[in-house]
Amino acid sequence: MAAHSSDGTGLRARLGALARRPDALAAALIGVVFVAAALFPRGLPFGIGLSAGVFASRAALAVTGVVLVYRSSRVINIAQIQLGAFGSLLFFELVKRHTLLIATNVVCNCLNRRVSPWMVQAEYWTAALTAIFISAVFGLLTYLFVIRRFRDAPPLVGTVATIAVAQVMTWAASRVPGWFKDKEPGGVIPAPVHIRFTISPAVFNTADVAAVVAAVVALVGIVWFLRRTRTGVAVRAAAENPDRAASLGVNVTMVGATVWTMAGLLSGLAGVLAVMANGGGAGGAAAGTLVRVLAAAVIAGMVNLPLALLAVLGLAVLDQSFLWSFGNATILDLVVFGLLLAFLLLRPVPRAGRVDPTGGSWIAAREVRPVPAELRGQKDVARLRRRVTIGLGLIVVGFPFIMSPSQTASGTVMLLYGIVGLSLLLLTGWAGLISLGQFAFAAIGGWGVALFGAKLGLPFLIALPLAGLLGALASVVVGLPALRIRGLYLAVTTLAFAVAVTNVLLGERYGGRLVPSTIERPSIFGLDASNETVFYYLALALLGLVTVAVVGMRRSRTARALIACRDNDRAAQSFGINLVRARLETFAVAGLIAAMAGGLFAYQQGGIAPGNFSPEVSLTMFLMVVIGGLGSIAGPLLGAFMVGGLTIFVPAFVGVFSAALVLVILAFVPGGLTQAVFAGRDALLRRIAVRNRIRVPSLLADGRVFAGEEKAAIHPKVRADGSPIELPARYRLPRRPLTVPRVAAHARGRQ
User: Fold this and answer.
1) What is the number of structural domains in the chain?
2) Measured between alpha carbons, how far is 575 from 437 in angstroms, rounded to an integer?
3) Is residue 560 a contact partner of residue 436, using CB atoms and an 8 Å limit?
4) Pick from 693, 709, 704, 707: which is nearest to 375 by CA?
5) Structural domain boundaries enclosing 598
6) What's this model's pTM, rounded to 2 decimal places?
7) Residue 30 and residue 313: Cα distance in Å, rounded?
8) Could you tell me if residue 731 is inside a domain?
9) Tens digits of per-residue pLDDT, 670-725?
10) What is the DSSP string of 549-604?
11) pLDDT tens for each residue of 614-638
């Protein structure tokens, strides 16, 4: 018995020691992945392992770019794969239409309508190098015009900026076929060199060989660059301690530009290899591929490149093993989410150091101050508030009567987006937790109403709350890592959850076949919701109820505790605040709100098509609340109004306009449109205060003196006989103005 206890104690001690070492824990999880793949029904043949290595070689290029960017700027580059989307599509179109050969013939007329095989090969590889070069330039421009501006901001701000960059690059890539007047952007381009061989049971071709060779050459070149060149040593030094490196004369701007250029080059190379493998243009990358790359980087702690490459290989082995044994690898998205959840729950809480893996919180989420008490009773202020309220009310209520049915349906979607935005306000604005997969809870709500309402036949007023409870339960599970780690890691976890929900829960192979494919709109209190106007007012009623609930929650102790924990969780806990309960309650309420909005969205769309709940919509939701601002309840509503207006009037440019607006707001108005609107309100209130000679310290911080008023004089100190007391010379103001010595330009650059 004692021996058994001793063995158990030793096992627990070894597990505890493993959990205290993140790298060892990650290596153990990857080892479990390899063992699990070998135990699948059909095993892991040697050919399948080599096929996994081919897939891993392309993903290795992407994960290397993610790790390099994070080490240099502490930013998770969400746009890593999209940086090469434009170049890869350009490569496809150039080769497909033989644009370079035609242009050469137009310039010099030297082909004489005869094209030899070596000319085709030269065109192919020239187009590939051009695509890679353009991707590297895009990486450099991203750093110079976006990332460098947010160098001193929290890492979360830079990460959000990369989401906007990803949307811009995706839109730019979608324009490429139009430049070539390609009415049918598809087809296959053959490789100029034909290689084909079989290692049972897998078949390999030219693209597979090129992927392995290119990955090995690129990784060896990067290692040599980082270890053998002065610029590479500067990159490593800046990654270890940017402030110390700058004080020693390292040009941090040059280092950042170099790293982002390398990231763009790696992205372009991976995109070209993907086109070679598929034989056609992809137009960007699937969210699942991005999540697997980010998951490998997170498991490696975002800084351990060898471990990240090993994690990529493990996920590729799982992918190919699923395909070999089950004929489908969709379930891998759920496995990736589970691995991330397990790793973050077992991983020790990181200590404060040179790199903050949590990324901090969203510092722009500052409260908007109310109208000062000195002005609330003024007639001008009351009249202004009344006019604004009536004007907004008329616009919202009268919207269906001035718009077409299709535009009214877009307005309904705008209202539902506003509800999801309010759920993000709870998580990000109050709790400081970043969720990039919030619309996944809306997808769970849509699946819930399809189950409870369409399949089981429950009434609408029962099916919708039940779907909301389903979303609340899922939200609590997803929020478990937030009890220990928040910020950037949690953002990747929620994005992985969004991919898993879309592909597994809504997919026809798994959760989608459990519910009907179509959902009929309900009849509520005798009103037919199939009418767009009726459904608009139904969504408006739900938005009103959720807004009232959020306003009441903001006045509660829970919201105050959340905000306190957001700003300083350790100090808040020292005052007796239960951080675990507060965050879990927030996740539950946020999931409930988002799921109810998703249920109504499923009724409005007539089904739960995966495309309506894709991870890209979740990213759009987060950008939407950034546009509106997270400082008040009005922020998500303003963001939804802006995105909804773009959807109605310029639907083809919603993504790029939203992304551009996000970049402008992050650079100039971090508080979003709310900050700009309420700044204008304060300026108007300031004019009212000055006109009515009302002193409002919060608005007139300059101590302005109105006509007829005088400032109190400062009386000099005197002795008992009335003679003044002279101040010592060291306390007197200088008779001549102070001069600040000029600092040389090169010295300022080192500071």
Assistant:
1) 2
2) 32
3) no
4) 693
5) 379-683
6) 0.86
7) 9
8) no
9) 888 888 888 888 888 888 888 888 888 877 765 555 555 555 555 667 777 777 77
10) HHHHHHTSHHHHHHHHHHHHHHHHHHTT--HHHHHHHHHHHHHHHHHHHHHHHHHH
11) 999 999 999 999 999 887 889 999 9
